[in-house]
Predict the structure.
Amino acid sequence: MPENQDPQATTKKGQEKIGQVVSTKMEKTIVVEVSRRVAHPFYRRIIKKRKKFYAHDEQGLAKVGDVVRIVEHRPLSKLKRWALAEVVRAAVQVGEAQ
């Protein structure tokens, strides 16, 4: 390994996805919906496809409606293979009583 290369930088970086939180009803788990626009294979018209991912949220930072970035992680349960990296944009909370 070259002297000036960081050993942490040589590790393979996992996938990242950005999506919207649709559920926080489980403990330490959020459901993130990732939408993407693709061309229809035959008609070539742009359509929206979406998929839900279960992500680990240890501190419970994400709320419903937040836009978050999730990263690939080792399997944590039957469905959970992602972890919350950061909250990109917080949802607007309307009508909060103080």
